[in-house]
Design brief:
Two copies of one chain form a homodimer. Chain A is of the alpha/beta class. In chain A, 35% of the residues lie in helices and 18% in strands. Chain A has three domains: 6-129 and 253-438, P-loop containing nucleotide triphosphate hydrolases (Rossmann fold, 3-Layer(aba) Sandwich), CATH 3.40.50.300; 136-236, Domain 2, N(10)-formyltetrahydrofolate synthetase; 453-534, Formyltetrahydrofolate synthetase, domain 3. In chain A, the strands form seven sheets. In chain A, strands 1, 2, 3, 4, 5, 6, 13, 14, 15, 16, 17 and 18 form a twelve-stranded mixed sheet that branches. A three-stranded mixed sheet of chain A has the order 20-23-22. A two-stranded parallel ribbon of chain A has the order 7-10. In chain A, a hairpin with a 4-residue loop joins strand 13 and strand 14. The radius of gyration of chain A is 23 Å and the shape is globular. Chains A and B meet through helix 7, strand 8, helix 9, helix 10 and strand 24 of A and helix 7, strand 8, helix 9, helix 10 and strand 24 of B.
Chain lengths: 565, 565
């Protein structure tokens, strides 16, 4: 059987009116605003309006440590939502909004795929309702007000060299990483070395995703620290009188977007913070509404369980007060084979052919990664469900190895063929998730607020990553001490490391042991409410390849989009 | 009587459902898509769907040479539309989308004012339906693809020093005017001197405003010239394979936005190209639809009749093939007094009190500007209607001076108090416009396509500005010759000079004589389809003031926007 392309499937889907989708969620029409035919904004008043309905089960989708191709978490999230509806449960999903930069770069879109995607692809992968653009605008207004403040006499006494607030754009543009601004004449500002990040890396994006109300958003924006005075006092967006205008720019963007999957499952698509320097999860407000809209809300966390899920548990749930009922761990045969260390997978290049040959031994050889990630979920008191994202090239013997490992670890497990068969193909997974949610669980964060920042980092490194310990660079240790004494010690930590290994080194596959985590730098996201630790090179502005996807994207004679994938 | 603030008027307006507004325009519901409660996108299919309806009268609103405060063209446009409906005609208006940068800078919003504004103010002044952001994204994708091309081996042989394509953001940020990009390591691009303009100054914005269809948009984007090879051959967006993706990013943005005025008059709000380096007019597609939606379409052209209206006649009408039936020339008492040369008006500062004293002599002393602008309209074969935008501080004797001058020049004239009284206050103006439209007119462009570029500039300078001639800097003359030989000689010209004088010198008030226009530089907007000439310093990226409007903009406890004006 040849599968039609994602774009063809998207295009041939007969979508339901969004008012029907909202009605299925129990959201009154007065609380939705259509944005075009295929997306609607849901007012945050829906949280109060739906408060009498029972809270649904809260299911987070995470993964083993992925290959550069990803394990297919988004397709599983979509497929599981459809699968739950297929077996007669009412389910909705919550995913992140794709970033436009990568859509025109190497990656293509990020709306799921096959018969497990959010539609239409053109809407979700392009502007959607403009939230990304609002983040860009709010972020850059603050940047302009900082430089304007310096230019107009600097009455707050900001040390220009301490300014950490850069600018952002939702485009893959390596030439903007390191720039000098303020050149020209005296009327053209103050020369300063700075740069642009991609919009998803903006602290404003993390703030939007972690806010629980408009008032909370306003306060978090005010708490953003942009730099310091010569005396070392933090300078905030509130000090610059920028937070109010930023909040006005973001007012509509705080309302989650409602879309639908190819099978009409309600899909909340909202926010897309980075998965390394930020927490990599979709918004809290979408989950708050989604949990009252369905019996099961399936929400996705970025990267592997050591990354997105750890932040889901310790940053997002801490901010929302919500507790998860189950965690789905997505694994693929090729992903586990890659963890054997015997293959090299490069994004944009064909898979090594030998990876596709039947080889249950290689799956077993990479299985420690799966075991560790199962333990990571369980460490937080949550029931793990291993979802094998099945490919046509898989072999039954390879699936059996994964099922046996999961069973040995006491985890639920199911093979899922949602990509080729939609919700029907995820029915077994849906049953496993229902069973996991019915188990008694007791959600437990990894560390208390009171633990010191360094202790929090040590705990994540040892208990989740499997490190022997942490080596803080002197500058990082000094910063952490300053944050403690500056009153930021109760914040959770967000460790920015590669997502391609449990360790900081992408070459270390499986579940590496006998290593220590080197923390090069510590930075503060005071508005978002976490301290982040940089381990290795973190790229916050992607570049384009020699043949970017943009070159193949166009309109056809009928004005339809072609070349999106 | 104390007027409520613009924001209070906007907030207290009971808006009609946009479906009612579309219905009033005869636009089928299937051709509109709501974007939130207060704006809808109208499909370009409406042009064909409405083609059986008679074409309405086409009225352009322009002005005398304005003071830095503006003459109130937008309020007249809104008020006239309302006034025509008040006297029983069916009218719609078309205006530009305000830029978000200035909204947070000194200017505040640009939705009209008083009882002649487009509502709600928060919608039109902020993101609206995201068109500005789409322009930003499309423009910057091309910029990224240029630098990526240079980084990946430069197979087209682009001379990096010839690249004129900068980047854009919709923010007032002087520090971005002159920057160096591509610093850092070898992986971070190629160091280059460049900068950012405000989004309204993007050629993409001009292209969007001048396109007549999606296919036309696609072709214009492909024709954008970003720089030259070492051999002097033009390098286009098509050469870089960027135009298709840019068109996809702009696909929805090409559809005009439908809103309404405080009195429920349909308002098409679409595109906002700069009024100096670009043509400063709202979109052609909005006019194409608007003209079939009403008996009168009132459309606004930026700055004075020597600027926006001249480009309306010679750039916009040339591209659309439409012919105007009347031109409204907005004048104020204070504006004409300022043209006496006896007052100095500075934006953001209080008016000189002596300007408000009764002084018909000063009005007469400045009247040559009005006479020249009446002649400028008539030079194009269009009936002029002088609209006196009345202020509470005006005196009858002063209004009489203007009326007498208009009558002596054979122009229609009316005093309009739309700001305080809405459509009722513009009834007299509406009657004058109806009369002007009924006169036989014969629209005549200023110059034929076949005239040389230098002749076109000479013609505008002599016949419209009243210059004795033009002095081309050697570099400009060389460029114009190159454009002629490169096949761009048939394009119209867009002269970028100050809008505060008929001449290139903002200090020369009234209708200056005995001067020559110095053309410093010539540049090509091949996609938009004009050559522009730079006379003096043209700022394409504004800065913020010491106390930007952003500092006063916030949300209140009810989550409503405060501080917008």
């Amino acid at each position: 059987m040849t599968m039609p392309s994602d774009l063809d499937i998207s295009r041939e889907t007969v979508t339901l009116p969004l008012s029907d989708i909202a009605e299925r969620c129990g959201i009154p029409a007065s609380l939705t605003e259509p944005y075009g035919r295929f997306a609607a904004k849901v007012s945050l008043d829906a949280v109060a309006a739906l408060s009498q309905r029972p809270r649904g089960k809260y299911v987070v989708v995470t993964a083993i440590t992925p290959t550069p191709l990803g394990e297919g978490k988004t397709t599983v999230t979509v497929g599981l939502g459809q699968g739950l509806n297929h077996i007669g449960k009412r389910a909705a999903i919550a995913i992140r909004q794709p970033s436009m930069g990568p859509t025109f770069g190497i990656k293509g879109g990020a709306a799921g795929g096959g018969y497990a995607q959010v539609v239409p692809m053109e809407t979700i992968n392009l502007h959607l309702t403009g939230d990304m653009h609002a983040v860009t605008a709010a972020h850059n207004l603050l940047a302009a007000m900082i430089d304007n403040h310096l230019h107009k006499g600097n009455s707050l006494g900001i040390d220009p060299h301490s300014v950490t607030w850069r600018r952002v754009l939702d485009v893959n543009d390596r030439d903007l990483r390191d720039i000098v601004t303020g050149l020209g004449s005296r009327a053209d500002g103050t020369p300063r070395q700075t740069g642009f990040d991609i919009t998803a890396a903006s602290e404003v994006m993390a703030i939007l995703a972690l806010s629980t109300s408009l008032a909370d958003l306003r306060n978090r924006l005010g708490r953003i620290v942009i730099g310091f005075t010569a005396d070392g006092a933090a300078v905030t967006a509130e000090d610059l009188k920028a937070a109010g205008a930023m909040c006005v720019i973001l007012r509509d963007a705080l309302n989650p977007n409602l879309m639908q999957t190819v099978e009409g499952t309600p899909a909340f698509v909202h926010c897309g913070p980075f998965g390394n320097i930020a927490h990599g999860n979709s918004s809290i407000v979408a989950d708050l509404i989604g949990l009252r809209s369905a019996d099961y809300l399936v929400t996705e966390a970025g990267f592997g369980a050591d990354m997105g899920a750890e932040r889901f548990f310790n940053i997002k749930c801490r901010a929302s007060g919500l507790t998860p009922d189950a965690a789905v761990l997505v694994a693929t045969v090729r992903g586990l084979k890659a963890h054997s260390g015997r293959y090299r997978i490069v994004a944009g290049r064909p898979l090594p052919p030998e990876l596709l040959a039947e080889n249950p031994g290689d799956v077993e050889a990479g299985a420690d990664n799966l075991r560790r990630q199962i333990a990571n979920v369980r460490r937080h008191g949550v029931s793990p469900v291993v979802a094998v994202n099945a490919f046509d090239t898989d072999h039954d013997s390879e699936h059996r190895v994964i099922a046996d490992i999961a069973a040995a670890e006491g985890a639920h497990v199911a093979i899922s063929s949602h990509f080729t068969r939609g919700g029907k193909g995820a029915a077994e997974l849906a049953e496993a998730v229902v069973a996991a949610c019915d188990e008694p669980g007791r959600f437990t964060p990894l560390y208390p607020d009171e633990a010191s920042l360094t202790d929090k980092v040590e705990t994540v490194a040892r208990e989740i990553y499997g490190a022997d310990g942490v080596d803080f660079a002197p500058a990082a240790a000094k910063r952490l001490a300053a944050y403690e004494s500056g009153g930021y010690g109760r914040l959770p930590v967000c460790i920015a490391k590669t997502h391609l290994s449990l360790s900081h080194d992408p070459a270390l596959k499986g579940a590496p042991t006998g290593w220590r985590l080197p923390v090069r730098e510590a930075r503060l996201s005071a508005g978002a409410g976490f301290v982040y630790l940089v381990c290795g090179d973190m790229r916050t502005m992607p570049g384009l390849s020699s043949a970017p996807a943009a070159e193949r994207i166009d309109i056809d004679e009928q004005g339809r989009v072609v070349g999106l994938s």
